[in-house]
Structure formats: structure tokens, C-alpha cells
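User: Predict the structure for this protein chain, please.
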Amino acid sequence: MKLQPLRRLGLALLTLVLSAACLAQEAVIRKTISERYPELKAIDEVNKSALPGLFELRVNGSEIYYTDAQGNYLIVGNLYDTKQRRNLTEERVDKLTAVKFDSLPFKDSFTIVRGNGERKLAVFEDPNCGYCKRFERDLQTINNVTVHMFLYPILGPDSGEKAKAIWCAKDRGQVWQDWMVREQAIPNSVQMCDADAIKRNVELGRKHKINGTPTLIFVDGTRIPGAIDAKQIEKHLADAKS
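Assistant: Here is the predicted structure, written as C-alpha cells:
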């Protein structure tokens, strides 16, 4: 019984020693990388990776690099677990850039409601995106859903002009669907309005690494980049609800 306190003390000391060793190693990595690659700017975090001897560097919020214990080598690319067939880098970035559905700034979106609207979906789209138009045609067949549409003009200046015209339209949802689904021109006589929401959407998307359109976000946090068909939309809506 008397040995228990000694064992606890020994474990506590070992923990302190290991912690100090980790901090010292992290300091070496930070110093070496910052001196040799100052363009990486500040390193947010240094962690051990799933591969022994390889360390993960998190830079600029969600950019992932890898290095050895001395910082002599810098690896840019994806780390895969071949046994489980998992892209560990992609999973890490997805976690870092995850967007909680309830935290989305819905005031900067407009809604399209079909049926009872009980299922919910957020979508980031560019009005000049061909894949978005294909996605929108499939979305027309989905019932009992509320779609929160975030205008996300990232394909060029004309995308921004179209997005502003849609945002300033009296019936945003109608004008959006007329343009995306029925190829009807966006009205030219657009009333002046505060379109800063579009700018905030772009800033939000960049922060969370939304690099393409459409990008879908479901209520369970699932994030789908790219156009998916009606069957896939239904599946994700069902999975998010369960």
C-alpha cells in the first residue's frame, strides 16, 4: 500500500519529463522552420502525426505541413493510412475548417422552402457556376426542405455583379431559380441595397476553405464539395436527420 504514493509520484515525474521533452522538441522545430522558411510565417501548432518520427505543422489556421524532429525536412502533401485507406491530412483539414450548421450567419443568406421545410440544408453557390446549375436542377425534385442559399461569387467580377443583382432583387429566391434553372435573365433594373452580405460570405468561405461551388453543409456538420444528384441529396438529408 505504501508503494502507491511512490508510483503516483513516479508517474507524475515521468509525465513532467516527457512534457518538457516535447516542448523542447517543438521549440527546435519552430526555430529551424521559421529560420529556413520565414514565408510560412507563424506556426500555429506542432503535433505528432500518426507516423512515428513525423510531426504535423499547422500554419495559417488550417494549412498542414509535415517535418522531422529536427525540422530538417519539410513535406507538403497528403498523409495516407494505407491499411484503413484514409486520407489523414484531408480529415485533419476538414476538422479544422468544419462549419457548425447552427453557427452559420443565416441573415446573409436567403431561403427557398419546399413542402413543410422540416429538413434543412445550406449551400454556397456562384451564379456563374455550371455545376451549380446542374445541382439546382436536381434540387428542384427535393421536397420538404429549407435551403439556405449563400451567394458565393468566386469565379470572377461578373459573378459578383450577378450575385449583387440577385441579392438586391425583390424576390431573391425566384430570381435565383429563374436564372439557375430556367436560364431567364437577371433583371437589369435592380434596386440599390446593402449587399455587404456577399462580401461577408466570401470572407466566411475563405476562412473555412470553401474553395469550390457548390458546397453543401448539412445540419449534422457534413460538408459536401461539388454537385451531387437528387439521390445523394436525399441520402445526406436522411443521415443528417437520424
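The chain is about 40% helix and 20% strand.
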